[in-house]
UniProtKB/TrEMBL annotation:
InterPro entries: Ribbon_hlx_hlx, TacA_1-like. This is Uncharacterized protein (DUF1778 family). Keywords: Toxin-antitoxin system. The lineage of its organism: Bacteria, Pseudomonadati, Pseudomonadota, Gammaproteobacteria, Candidatus Competibacteraceae. One of its GO terms (biological process) is regulation of DNA-templated transcription. Pfam families: TacA1. Gene3D superfamilies: Single helix bin. Signal peptide: none annotated. Belongs to the TacA antitoxin family. It comes from Plasticicumulans acidivorans.
Amino acid sequence: MPAASSTARLEARISTDLHSMLKRAAELQGRTMTDFVIAAVQDAAQRAIEQAEVIRLSLADQQCFAQALLSPPQPTPALERAFARRSRLLRAE
């Protein structure tokens, strides 16, 4: 038996002009207004999340990043001390 999906309600006050526009757009796509609005909001949310989480690099930055991965710099003395301290802390636990 499939699990029941839960739903939540979203309400918004919009202008009559926007309401008419949404209704017309939904009709043009052969959808209900609710289906049209849900799809539009979901697309907008996914784009907003992607823009916040995906890092886009220029070609030069991509090459610099790849080079750093392929040939990482030697650890500095401070980094070596930090690793040594971390190893001591992990052994103490």
